[in-house]
Design brief:
The protein has 423 residues and is an alpha+beta fold. It is built from 20 helices and 10 strands.
């Protein structure tokens, strides 16, 4: 059985189930994953025959833009559902083959590998004395992949010409933006199922070159850190590796963003690094920009102008809190979580106190909870802002931590204590 036959086998083409789970936006045909299930059952044999006779033509991807943290926008290519399914089927057959070739210190888009594994390996190198970092920034990597180069690399491993031709068809399928189809002479669209594997095939060449030179590195997708023992060695490595990337791989390096740095000066997938006072080992922490982004999300959900019920507000807060802390579970941040928990609870108290808009409503509630009439009158007559009043001990009685937990709120400090992995 050829590799293409494996890709198109009925069991493998059930890859649509993964596409269904991942959902994703519509492609240029406007078909959703929900509408596709019946279509696949009816037309599977026809699709299979068109691919095997080389008559199948992938549709252009639909270009969409999502905001980046720095204010720029990242372009994503959304394939049609049928193309996502076929690409996923290709990935499922080729991944086990390439996994045997990929580097042990490459972590992005690979089975059973997490970003935190790259962070842990980087820390291991830092603490072994390799704490001068060559931070290479590839300029718009996915947009600049040379089609001929990636196909030549695939041909070294994949000897099935029909399958390689199908992959090339996806590379040149084109992009539709504002109703106009544009040719794709280079690059592989971020957002499709095939690009992550193709990016690893391309950058595996860089991994092997670094290994050949005996260099220590970690790579997650197109973000690569090379670790050496001295600033002089780092500058030398950066110059030679930039030449290799640009001449041998045909990629572009952003010279203004690439740099030689110490661990404390870099941000790697949201993590920063520091040395505890009195110790000599590097430790992980969330980068200050990651903390700020987390706080902005919590602030957005707890805005008084954000008109939703308390139950939905807590549900959305819990989703953000669990997701963010789970991602940074290996980081040192107990003090920061204590601070954020206190601030979050105060914002919720402020919010709930303002919602009790009339003095009569507040008076009744406070008296029912056993607060003295004198304290109730003092609070109701206060000219302080809602924010300042949220620190009043009486309000803490009405809206206690225990009551917030009873309403289902996940406290950041509690969740961090629960999931934290000490390194």
């Amino acid at each position: 059985m050829s590799l293409l036959d494996e890709v198109l086998s009925k069991n493998n083409i059930e890859a649509y189930k993964k596409v269904y789970q991942n959902k994703g936006a519509k492609g240029v045909d406007g078909v959703t994953v929900y509408e596709f299930r019946d279509y696949l059952d009816k037309h599977f044999e026809e699709i299979k025959e068109r691919i095997k006779t080389r008559k199948y033509k992938p549709s252009p991807v639909r270009k969409v833009y999502i905001p980046k943290d720095n204010g720029d926008k990242r372009g994503l290519g959304m394939p049609t559902v049928i193309d996502r399914v076929i690409q996923q089927a290709i990935v499922q057959v080729l991944t086990p083959i390439y996994e045997k070739q990929f580097s042990e210190t490459s972590y992005g888009f690979r089975p059973k590998r997490l970003c935190e594994m790259a962070i842990i390996k980087a820390l291991e190198y830092f603490n072994d004395g390799y704490d001068w970092i060559v931070d290479i920034d590839l300029d718009k990597f996915f947009d600049n992949v040379c089609h001929d180069k990636i196909i030549s690399l695939i041909l070294k491993t994949v000897k099935d010409g029909d399958l390689v031709l199908l992959i090339r068809k996806y590379l040149v399928a084109g992009v539709m933006e504002n109703g106009v189809v544009q040719e794709t002479k280079k690059g592989t669209p971020q957002g499709d199922n095939l690009s992550p594997l193709l990016s690893n095939i391309m950058l595996n060449e860089l991994d092997k070159e670094l290994e050949r030179r005996g260099l220590r590195f970690v790579r997650y997708a197109d973000d690569c850190l090379i670790m050496v023992r001295s600033e002089k060695a780092a500058n030398r490595v950066m110059d030679s590796i930039i030449r290799y990337i640009e001449k041998k791989l045909g990629l572009k390096v952003n010279a203004t963003k690439s740099k030689v740095a110490r661990p404390k000066d870099i941000k790697y997938f949201g993590f920063g690094f520091y040395i505890k006072p009195g110790q000599d080992n590097w430790r992980p922490k969330p980068h200050i920009k990651s903390i700020q982004k987390f706080k902005r999300k919590l602030k957005q959900i707890t805005k008084r102008s954000y008109s939703i019920s308390l139950a939905i507000r807590i549900q959305r807060l819990n989703y953000v809190i669990r997701g963010w802390i789970n991602y940074f579970r290996i980081a040192d941040m107990k003090g920061k979580m204590k601070e954020i928990t206190s601030h979050l609870n105060r914002r919720i108290r402020c919010l709930l106190w303002k919602q009790r808009k009339t003095c009569k409503g507040r008076y009744t509630r406070l008296i029912r909870l056993g607060v003295s009439k004198i304290k109730v009158k003092e609070l109701n007559g206060s000219r302080k802002s809602y924010w300042n009043n949220s620190m009043n001990p009486t309000i803490h009685i009405v809206i206690s931590n225990k009551r917030l937990k009873a309403n289902g709120l996940v406290f950041p400090l509690d969740h961090y204590t629960k999931v934290h992995i000490e390194l």
